[in-house]
Design a protein that fits this description.
It contains 11 helices and 13 strands. Helices cover 33% and strands 22% of the residues. Residues 208-233, 304-333 and 337-354 have low confidence and may be disordered. Helix 5 (101-113) packs across helix 6 and helix 8 (183-191) runs antiparallel to helix 10 (279-289). By secondary structure, it is α+β, with helices and mostly antiparallel strands. Among the domains are: 1-69, no CATH class; 71-236, no CATH class. One of its GO terms (molecular function) is cysteine-type deubiquitinase activity. It holds the Pfam family UCH. This is USP domain-containing protein. One of its GO terms (biological process) is protein deubiquitination.
């Protein structure tokens, strides 16, 4: 069931490789045409090294794949006592942030036992990252601070640049991949999918402070309080809005995406496109058909995707405007829980023209 993520990654990887090497596809597929004349193992080895070399190369300016979906992560080790950053690990270039459903559920149970009343996705991810870091530090060579010489015990995840779209890949265990999961499990999955996230709540962005610089999460230290230090070092918004997701059922994938133009969610099922309504309508449809979400797409709130060029689309873009999402309105329109409209632009005050 990881095919959705694998397919997305493969497509984006091909775009990156072709951007780096304009003759990449011709060279790659030429080998396939000459399979009978080339040793299969030698061909596979060559393809592997060719792909790896191109994948490891950064792109400046960024290719379309990395500009839109690219996640450049690194883990940093810093001294909890004096706050000095000593070590930055190798950059990991990814397109998706994996979330393991069983790990998410177990984390929710842990946080509930600790007394947390409001358990959000950023809180869950922060707790997971802390657990991964502790495990990593326990089984790695101990490092010492260059200043105070104390053992370095804190590690955090750093997102170097903001993508236009932040993608989560929901990973189910092997048994769930091969069978139909219950509606109760699906309900729990939909419960932790938020309409809006702030990446600063669980990642360090650029030079800003992230939550994992602090002590362990406790109910008395709300997550939102942690992101205030160095909060606006960049003018770029770190808020992302859920714009669509892919579901899986019975070896088949169905996509759902929100249209700001029509203020409605739409279903994309092979050649069929249907207007569904608000997010609650989408959720009910997924529960009825036992369609499990596998890939979530969050668009950066200050990215204007409507303008494809400054010519042909300028007049249309000016007429439609660009939607922005106000915190107090986000759950009161068709995007989330509002009543389905008849198409056209929403009259909701949440939609603001630029």
């Amino acid at each position: 069931m990881g095919c959705a993520q694998e397919t997305l990654t493969d497509i984006l990887s091909y775009l990156h490789r072709e951007y780096q090497s304009p003759n990449y596809l011709e060279e790659y597929f030429l080998l396939q045409q000459e399979e009978s004349d080339v040793d299969q193992k030698a061909e596979d080895d060559y393809k592997f090294h060719l792909n790896k070399d191109l994948d490891d190369k950064g792109c400046a300016p960024k290719c379309p794949a990395h500009l839109t979906f690219g996640l450049d992560f690194c883990e940093i080790s810093s001294c909890e006592k004096c706050g000095i950053t000593d070590d930055v690990s190798q950059i990991k270039r990814e397109y998706c942030h994996p979330l393991y459903i069983e790990e998410v559920f177990s984390t929710i149970e842990i946080l509930t036992k600790k007394g947390f009343k409001e358990i959000s996705l950023p809180l869950i991810i922060t707790h997971i990252i802390q657990g991964e870091n502790k495990f990593h530090m326990s089984y790695s060579d101990i490092k010492f601070c260059s200043s105070c010489k104390d053992p370095v015990q804190v590690s955090e995840r750093w997102l170097l640049e903001l993508p236009n779209v932040y993608t989560f890949s929901l990973q189910y265990d092997f048994g769930q991949q091969r069978s139909t999961i219950s509606r109760d499990v699906l309900n729990k999955v939909f419960d932790f999918i938020p309409p809006k996230i702030n990446l600063r709540d669980f990642l360090r962005i650029g030079g800003s402070m992230g939550p994992t610089n602090k002590k362990d999460l406790t109910p008395s230290s709300p997550l939102e309080d942690w992101s205030q230090e160095s909060y606006l070092e960049s003018k770029e918004s770190t808020y992302f809005i859920l714009r669509g997701f892919i579901t899986f059922y019975g070896l088949h994938y169905i996509a759902y995406f929100y249209s700001a133009k029509y203020d409605n969610w739409f279903q994309f099922n092979d050649e069929s496109i249907k207007q569904i309504g608000n997010f609650e309508d989408v959720r009910k449809r997924c529960l009825a058909g036992k369609q499990r979400p596998t890939t979530l797409f969050y668009e950066r709130s200050d990215v204007i995707m409507n303008v494809l060029s400054t010519g042909a689309f300028e007049e249309e873009t000016e007429a439609l405007g660009r939607v922005y999402f106000k915190e107090d309105e986000i759950k009161h329109n068709n995007f989330w829980n509002g009543k389905s409209g008849g198409g056209g632009l929403s009259g909701c005050s949440m939609f603001q023209r630029i």
